Amino acid sequence: QVQLVESGGGLVQAGGSLRLSCAASGRTFSSYKMGWFRQAPGKEREFVAGTTRSGLTTYYADSVKGRVTISRDNAKNTVYLQMNSLMSEDTGVYYCAADEGYSSNVYTRPGVYDYWGQGTQVTVSS
Hints:
Number of strands: 11
Largest sheet: 7 strands, mixed
Helix content: under 10%
Structural class: mainly beta
Shape: globular
Order of helices and strands: EEEEEEEEEEE
Distance between the termini: 40 Å
Radius of gyration: 13 Å
Strand content: over 45%
């Protein structure tokens, strides 16, 4: 089992940047594929970015490609989400999630992920 704690959210003006962090504790962090999701009020939770166990391969939602970078530091048990050129549409609660499945595939469906953090609020003002 792994426990996840997000941090780094806040209020930022459109065009600004934020770096979210997700610290993991418990079972070996490098055994999990990691993902970032977000949920806006009244909307379903959606995939933002994901990475393989090594961090060498990353995946992004079309809506954030070119503006967002996911990375992980397995020595620090932390996954990051660097967000640039933020837009009002990026507003929401951001969650990190861990997938302990055996497949090497990174999935975009929230239901695949086994563990979730409590979320951190990101608000982009226009």
